[in-house]
Amino acid sequence: MPCIITEGVTDRLYIQAMISVLYSSEQPRFYIVPSKGASNIDRLVSIFIGWGIKYKVLLDYDGEGFKEYRELVSDLGIDKSLIVFVNQEEYKDNINKESYGAIESLISERDFSKLDTWNMWKDDYKNHKTIIANEFYNKVISSELITDVLTKENFNKLFDVLFDM
């Protein structure tokens, strides 16, 4: 079964939640494998290469994502088509601050506002992002939170690229 390697557990939670919204159970499943930060993805990729597992890498469109992209391509010789940025942008030598994108940028402000944890900690998101992602996942899976059209469109675009194996 193909794998998607993400930078972390929050990426996995958001993706799993949106897979449950956008795909029927008859469609092929993907394992979502979280890394412990972008800088550790190369280790997982090395294992997957050794085991012959099909995979793609999902990176944030930021400095850390760009650094890992360069390492995967130059040090491991990974085909660029196996690396996807969350905003589906192409790699550039210099990143424009306005172009930054993380998995959270795919979720509408309206959907975030439906989360108690978001309303409590949005000003300190970095220190509470896993708790917020857990609430999103649990509410989506239980159908307590029905994601809006913008969130669905954003994840559909990502999944079109990510799941094309």
Explain this structure to me?
The protein has 165 residues and is of the alpha/beta class. It has one domain: Rossmann fold (3-Layer(aba) Sandwich), CATH 3.40.50. The protein is 48% helix and 10% strand. It has 7 helices and 4 strands; from the N terminus they run βαβαβαβαααα. The chain has a 4-stranded parallel sheet with strand order 2-1-3-4, with helices on both faces. Strand 3, helix 3 (63-74) and strand 4 (83-85) form a beta-alpha-beta unit. Helix 1 (9-22) runs parallel beside helix 6. The model has no long low-confidence stretch (mean pLDDT 90).
Unreliable runs:
none
Level-2 CATH architecture: 3-Layer(aba) Sandwich
Query: In percent, how helical is the residue content?
Result: 40-55%
Count of helical regions: 7
Tell me the strand order in the biggest sheet.
2-1-3-4
Please give the CATH class: Alpha Beta
Number of domains: 1
CATH topology: Rossmann fold
Strand content: 5-15%
Average pLDDT: 90
- Main sheet: strands, sense, barrel: 4 strands, parallel
Number of strands: 4
- Structural class computed from helices and strand pairing: alpha/beta
